[in-house]
Amino acid sequence: MDPSVDTSGHRLLIIDDDPSIGAMIARVAARAGYQTLVVSTPDDFLQRVRIWAPTHIVMDLQMPVVDGLELLSQLASDHSTARIILISGAGDRVVDAARRVGTARGLSVTAALNKPFSIAELESVLQANRLEDPWLTVANLSAAIERDEFFLLYQPQVDLRSGAVPAAEALVRWRHPVRGVVSPLEFIPFAESSACIDRMTQWIVGAGCAQLRRWDGMGMAMRLAINLSARNLHEARLGDQLEAQCRGAGVDPSRLTFELTETAAMRDATLMTDVLTRLRVKGFGLSIDDFGTGYSSLVLLHRLPFTELKVDRSFVSTCLTSKESRAIVRHVVDLAHALHLHAVAEGVESAEVMRLLRELDCDAAQGTFVALPLEADQVPDMVRGHADAPWYRAGAPWAVAG
């Protein structure tokens, strides 16, 4: 059978300008149960990606003419869902940096090997990256939406001035009939690479609005944060669609804040400006998630109508032990306030971090110290009983001694 049209099993595409290394990887991979193709030029590689649809890619970062970073950028533009294994002789720091770049662009960079690597190391990585029987398909995802197998968890956000709990972030999960509860890290990238992400976002907004109305009936006027994918933003009428959905549920759009990462916001600047401005005109809030980890944060703030910055958990979690992280958190909070934006810190895991955030005048916080993601029926007890929670006694102005 012509391998260019075989779309079954584990398909590994290898690109390395050294034919002997490519052949060696192919032999080891074949023993591990992979179908393999070896290419040495970027044009051949990209053609095979589009025609053969590999499930896995082994990519040498150091190649003449076009290097691996450029190919990662192209794979991101093509919305590749392949698991990518990077190899390079440039050292740990270069490989780690490339891995972060690929991940930030939405790619599934699952492993990295430094040359020279042993056959045993290669075998271990290939075995660890084998896919199970294909269960994640467009048909299965669509059927799961129809069968209402998805559900939302809610991670509360605490107001660092009053101690109140006015908002929560909605986090989607899949209750699969065979696999149990499936993490969004498994199915969201696939949904983004297909037409399913729009339907999934509509479901999340609908479920979130319905829950807000139920909380309203309990006397809890909560706000909700919902993540948007870059793929959601391709539709200029997104604001109209989401507004109609909210109005139909009896929820004012101002009670929803849509979060998107810096990387997502940088795609197609003209369209992003159009779509996000329309969302703001409708009354929705807009938040930059993971602020400080992307490449064009200040450009985004200047160009797009955001209402909130979320300080990335990587800085918050290390702000007590790292002067650099503490300085970044302080300056992000100050920047947010200078631009009249709300500042929210993610990843708060201790009383000490919470006290520091209050000292830095951060507006709100979320993380395991405040609450783990909760089922909807657990939120009212958490909100009403927050005065007895450890974080409430963490040294802020509202706190009770002890």
Secondary-structure blueprint:
Layout: E1 11-15, H1 19-31, E2 35-39, H2 42-52, E3 56-60, H3 68-77, E4 83-88, H4 92-104, E5 108-114, H5 119-128, H6 138-146, E6 150-159, E7 167-176, E8 180-182, H7 184-192, H8 196-217, E9 223-227, H9 238-249, E10 256-261, H10 262-265, H11 269-282, E11 285-291, H12 297-303, E12 308-311, H13 313-316, H14 323-338, E13 342-345, H15 351-359, E14 364-365, H16 379-384
Parallel strand pairs: 1-2, 1-3, 3-4, 4-5, 7-9, 9-10, 10-11, 11-12, 12-13, 13-14
Antiparallel strand pairs: 6-7, 6-14, 7-8
Question: How would you sum up this structure in a few lines?
Answer:
The protein is an alpha/beta fold. The chain has helices spanning 19-31, 42-52, 68-77, 92-104, 119-128, 138-146, 184-192, 196-217, 238-249, 262-265, 269-282, 297-303, 313-316, 323-338, 351-359, 379-384, and strands spanning 11-15, 35-39, 56-60, 83-88, 108-114, 150-159, 167-176, 180-182, 223-227, 256-261, 285-291, 308-311, 342-345, 364-365.
Q: How would you characterize the overall build of this protein?
A:
The protein is of the alpha/beta class and 402 residues long. It has two domains: 7-128, Rossmann fold, CATH 3.40.50.2300; 138-393, Alpha-Beta Barrel (TIM Barrel), CATH 3.20.20. Helices cover 42% and strands 20% of the residues. The chain has 16 helices and 14 strands. It has helices spanning 19-31, 42-52, 68-77, 92-104, 119-128, 138-146, 184-192, 196-217, 238-249, 262-265, 269-282, 297-303, 313-316, 323-338, 351-359, 379-384, and strands at residues 11-15, 35-39, 56-60, 83-88, 108-114, 150-159, 167-176, 180-182, 223-227, 256-261, 285-291, 308-311, 342-345, 364-365. The strands form two sheets. An eight-stranded mixed barrel has the order 6-7-9-10-11-12-13-14. Helix 6 (138-146) packs parallel to helix 8. The longest helix has 22 residues, at 196-217. The protein is globular. The termini are far apart.
